[in-house]
Amino acid sequence: MTEKPIIVGAEQVSRYLPKLKGKRVALVVNQTSKVFDEHLVDFLLKKHIDIKFIFAPEHGFRGNRDAGEKFASSLDSQTGIPLVSLYGKTRKPSLSIMKQFDVIVFDIQDVGVRFYTYISTMHYMMEAAADAGIEFIVLDRPNPNGSFIDGPVLEKEFRSFVGMHPIPILHGLTVAELAQMIKGEAWLTSKKHLALTVVKVKNYQRDFAYSLPVKPSPNLPNDQAIALYPSLTFFEATPVSIGRGTPFPFQVIGHDKVNLGSFTFTPVSTLGAATKPKLMQVKLQGEDLRHVASQGLNLHYLLAWYQAFAKKGLIFFNSPKFMDKLAGTDKLRKAIISGQSAQQIKQSWQADIDSFRVKRRPYLLYPDIN
């Protein structure tokens, strides 16, 4: 535990408010963008900041959209401010929109996993800001998986919106550190200089336990789901359910024809979280992980379920291309199929992780525990 309370970037008002006074401002925010008990939008409006646009990532401005659900731009019902979707037809705003403001503030809680798409949205907004010559301010927040660096480093041929950067699945960086790395490593396509400002978290170290005050997306409702997320997301490329459409998404594993446990659950349509979940209305049986100690990247679940499917002659990776996008490589899927152990697989990416540790050092804002 920390002796001093953690103070997120958004709560260090004196560090960024002067940069917004008298400017036309755009915000990249969602339901996690809180200043104490108030949303950043409402807080800044009370400070008479001229907010021209709100840009919303996957799951929407209010965080009530399904995973992968596209949504259109509109007006925010509560403030009347134009609300621009960054998870629909457009991932990067046009230059004509960008010219309507002077500065962008990014304040979104991330979970420190490469395939969580908020960091892809940040990347595209950084590119748009560079192209338009607009300052980009990142209000930093802790990484709840910040103690871990693990998983294959993404190979460029597998680059997608669920993996844009040559970093491991668990990269151990906060969004501000990653923003500095994206700029410093010249990963942006823009050839123009980006004016990047970061407001770091006070009293934070990356190995501190940090319980998120607001759930970062509809299917990550608690600390346990966030801890299991890096390990269970691979099941999205299989026929197996990980609890979408239940009160405990990313905390259970189950199927109707193959099972590795006695826990039963039935996914149902859940508005704002899983409208059409996998195996909807089917009684499933499997593992209850709600109270299992879990941290980092655990390949045990994936290997065990693959082997159970293989024994029955059933296809496990029914979306192999998506699996490879999530992994950032096809080597993980092929290693599992070939029968390699978790230890062998993890050893295969160790050299790349060692190189990544060295490459990220110049961009760290907090002490490195690795």
Compose a concise summary of this entry:
This protein has 370 residues and is of the alpha/beta class. The protein has 11 helices and 12 strands. Strands 5-6-4-1-7-8-9 form a 7-stranded mixed sheet, sandwiched between helices. It has a 3-stranded antiparallel sheet with strand order 10-12-11, with no helix packed on it.
User: Overall 3D geometry?
Assistant: globular
Distance between the termini: 19 Å
Helix-strand string: HEEEHEEEHEHEHEHEEEHHHHH
Low-confidence stretches: none
Return Rg in Å. 21 Å
Q: Number of DSSP helices?
A: 11
Mean of all residue-level pLDDT scores: 93
- Main structural class: alpha/beta
Major sheet characteristics = 7 strands, mixed
Q: Would you report the number of β strands?
A: 12
Helix content: 25-40%
Indicate the proportion of strand residues: 5-15%
In spatial order, strands of the major sheet run 5-6-4-1-7-8-9
Question: Could you explain the architecture of this structure?
Answer:
This protein has eleven helices and twelve strands. It has a seven-stranded mixed β-sheet, with helices on both faces. The model has no long low-confidence stretch (mean pLDDT 93). It has helices at residues 13-20, 40-46, 95-98, 118-132, 175-184, 223-232, 300-311, 320-327, 331-337, 342-348, 350-360; strands at residues 24-29, 34-35, 38-39, 50-56, 74-75, 82-85, 103-107, 135-139, 196-199, 252-255, 263-265, 284-288. The protein is of the alpha/beta class. The chain is 27% helix and 13% strand. The relative contact order is 0.13.
